[in-house]
Amino acid sequence: MAATLDPVTTKTNYLNALKSAIDEEMGRNPDMICLGEDIGILGGAFGVTEGLQAKYGTHRVMDMPISEAAIVGVSCGAALGGKTVMAEMQFIDFISCGFDQIVNMLATYHYRTAGEVAMNVVIRGPAGAYGGGALYHSQMNEAWFCQSPGLRVVVPSTPYDAKGLMKAALRDPNPVIFYEIKQLYRLSDIAEELPEEDYIVPLGQAAIRRAGTDLTLISYGQNVYHCLDAAKKLEDEGMQVEVIDLRSLVPLDEATILESIKKTNRALVVNEAPRTCGFAGELVARINELAFEHLDAPPLRLTRMDTPVPWAKALENFVLPQVDDIVSTARRLIRY
Amino acid sequence: METKTLTPPKSGSGSGRKSKAEPQSTTKPSDLLTPEDCLEMLKQLYLARYFDVRLIKEKRRGRLTGTLYSSHNQEAILVGSLYGLNGTDWISPIHRDMPAFFIKDLRAGWDNPDRLGMSIGEVCAQVWCRSGSPGRARDNWSHIGSKSKRIVHSTSMLAGTIPVAAGVVLADRLNGGDAVVLTYNGEGSTAQGVFHEAINFAAVHKLPVITIVENNMWAYGTPVELECPTEDVATRAAGYGIPGLIADGQDVFDVYDKVMVAVEHARAGKGPSIVECKTFRAYGHGDHDDDRAARYRTKEDVESGRSRDPIAICKIHLVNKGYLTKAEAKKYMAENKHATQTSDEDFPPDVVSYMSKGIEFALASPPPPAEEGAMWVFREEN
Ligand SMILES: Cc1ncc(C[n+]2csc(CCOP(=O)(O)OP(=O)(O)O)c2C)c(N)n1
Ligand SMILES: [Mg+2]
């Protein structure tokens, strides 16, 4: 993933795709507000909300004190009061400071009120490793929230999806935890032309990024690109690998996974989150439940080791799944 | 104003942000209450007490499940704080505040179906774990709320609803409303980080968030001095540049006075206040804790803590004001009794029948059907 930064282009990068989604939704929904640390005057640590406060005012784009619990709790209250809320976590790693408000307040609101109160809240923030961000600027902690019924969990990997999923999330009456992959924010290689007209990418629909017959690689976020790179290498060796980008984890597109495995009879999940109780483990379990009779080999997962994400490049590379790991595991599975 | 106890930092070295003293006035908000108001407040005290003693008795007879967190001896805080609110104001009660759900906007008429408070029947349906509960018995006891009645839905997470309360009045302000929100918290809960985080935010934006601290000296088995490093919780307000007021939690009119000062301050756009109400927890933390509480608290402490019954104190005021004769004051003697020592004759008959009708409503309501357990995890459409 060699990055050439910001060439002059009509293509939209991942970050600007997100920005335009939030901007357009602010424009079409006067009841929408944005809350977060440094999102107004500064425009966000990465610039996702740049210009929004000038355009929509300090009442709709609020700089919050450094309190993730207050950001999430106030979002719940504003949603109770009828607002749609975009709440930014400066880094998704810091979401743990608002954890109680998310899993006990936000996630359960609709359930415990027997449907009386919807929480139109999107909590979004930069996530993901492979960038030297070290322990507290690298996390993918999506499994915490996939295990909290009532939350939708979304991880886009392309600018098109980033925009379409963000719009869908902001229109969804349920709370959404939205993982933005910061390594992709300004990656010009993946910048693309986006439709002029309004569009959404519905939550719960996976995308097949590459068709193949010999093995299904399942991933999301940055790992999609690792899988595509691995698929190219395997093609050179005569193997055709299918690559599924889940895009949304909750709800999960089981049908696309099942259809793919019916064709390939083999599955490998690739995930940068730690192994134990990660979403990869959930996917392997689902594959067993859904598609056991179609499998010619055990469904496997390639994940980060059960470690935090270390800083030094050699250490980080060591604990995270790499393209070569995918290639060798895929070979093994195909020859199984 | 005699009632307004602003609490500046003791050192007096704090710069800049001190609130300006209000012009002195001898009229307290409660001086403007009519005789009818005052008698109504007494009746609401009886109702809160009767709700509690009736539930204690029902629980002892094995008719209820879950834990009962008694508000006995703390009713003046609920009645006094709620009485001056508009129906459109929000409240955010917690475990010990169950009467608040139906006392909210009760002034608009006990049988007024349009008042912005829950019906006592709905609250009883919740306690009896029936589908007629506003939350359809999905979470237990005090964990209910109502968007339409403007009651923030409570959870178990102590202090966790304060930021939600701040958010809901933020939304109201953005919509041009002038609602305030009263949040209720025990003194133990003030040790939570989110207590600070939410009040700090509300103070920055001058949001109308009034934090009532029911300081009943105990947080489960832990005395106040192991929860709070200061004599008063209210002094913490100085750290946010907001008023910190202290009320006698046994005196419904003193609570009313202090809360109304905070409400006016908030409604005028001047921001939050903390109102600490000094009181004493009558029984164990919950009814499961009664036996152990009898060991970790001394008999003398409990007796002195319960020696100022809010119903008795309210009556003294009403007699002094001439709104109640001494004979009338002796007619219903609910005060200074353990719940189990009271009988229905200790309460006005209309209070008893109001609660009894609530229970009838609850008992007529079926338990929720099992399959509802899997419903409403997500909302399917907008
Ligand atoms: C976050 C959290 N931690 C612990 C508890 C368990 N708990 C419930 S009530 C309580 C004591 C609360 O004391 P206080 O805030 O003084 O309120 P009181 O019960 O005295 O009215 C405790 C520890 C809880 N419900 N929530
Ligand atoms: Mg207490």
Topology (elements, then pairings):
The complex is a heterodimer of chains A (336) and B (382).
Chain A: H1 14-28, E1 32-36, H2 52-56, E2 61-63, H3 68-80, E3 84-88, H4 99-106, H5 109-112, E4 121-127, H6 142-146, E5 152-154, H7 159-171, E6 176-181, E7 207-210, E8 215-219, H8 223-236, E9 241-245, E10 248-250, H9 254-264, E11 267-274, H10 279-291, E12 300-304, H11 313-319, H12 323-334
Parallel strand pairs in A: 1-2, 1-3, 3-4, 4-6, 5-6, 8-9, 8-11, 11-12
Antiparallel strand pairs in A: 5-10, 7-9
Helix pairs in contact in A: 1-7, 3-4, 8-12, 9-10
Chain B: H1 35-60, H2 75-82, E1 90-92, H3 100-103, H4 120-127, H5 162-174, E2 181-186, H6 193-204, E3 209-215, E4 218-219, E5 222-223, E6 244-248, H7 252-267, E7 273-278, H8 290-296, H9 299-305, H10 310-321, H11 326-329, H12 349-364
Parallel strand pairs in B: 1-2, 2-3, 3-7, 6-7
Antiparallel strand pairs in B: 4-5
The complex binds thiamine diphosphate and magnesium ion.
Thiamine diphosphate binds at residues 95-96, 156-158, 186-189, 214, 216, 218-220, 281, 285 of chain B.
Description:
The complex is a heterodimer of chains A (about 325) and B (about 375). Chain A is built from 12 helices and 12 strands. Chain A starts with 13 loop residues before the first helix and ends with a helix. By secondary structure, chain A is α/β, with parallel strands linked by helices. Chain A folds into 2 domains: about 10-195, 3-Layer(aba) Sandwich (Rossmann fold), CATH 3.40.50.970; about 205-335, Rossmann fold (3-Layer(aba) Sandwich), CATH 3.40.50.920. In chain A, helix 1 packs parallel to helix 7 (about 160-170) and helix 9 (about 255-265) packs across helix 10 (about 280-290). In chain A, the strands form 2 sheets. In chain A, strands 2-1-3-4-6-5-10 form a 7-stranded mixed sheet, sandwiched between helices. Chain A has helices spanning about 15-30, 50-55, 70-80, 100-105, 110, 140-145, 160-170, 225-235, 255-265, 280-290, 315-320, 325-335, and strands at about 30-35, 60-65, 85-90, 120-125, 150-155, 175-180, 205-210, 215-220, 240-245, 250, 265-275, 300-305. The model of chain A has no long low-confidence stretch (mean pLDDT about 95). In chain A, strand 5, helix 7 (about 160-170) and strand 6 form a beta-alpha-beta unit. Chain A is globular. With about 375 residues, chain B is of the alpha/beta class. Chain B has one domain (about 35-90, about 150-360): Rossmann fold. Chain B has helices at about 35-60, 75-80, 100-105, 120-125, 160-175, 195-205, 250-265, 290-295, 300-305, 310-320, 325-330, 350-365, and strands at about 90, 180-185, 210-215, 220, 220-225, 245-250, 275-280. In chain B, the strands form 2 sheets. Chain B has a 5-stranded parallel sheet with strand order 1-2-3-7-6, with helices on both faces. In chain B, strand 4 (about 220) and strand 5 (about 220-225) form a beta hairpin. In chain B, helix 1 (about 35-60) packs across helix 2 (about 75-80), helix 1 packs across helix 12 and helix 5 packs parallel to helix 6. The longest helix of chain B is centred in the first third of the chain and has 26 residues, at about 35-60. Chain B is globular, with a radius of gyration of 20 Å. The chains are: A alpha/beta (about 325), B alpha/beta (about 375). Magnesium ion (MG) binds near residues 186, 188, 216, 218 and 219 of chain B.
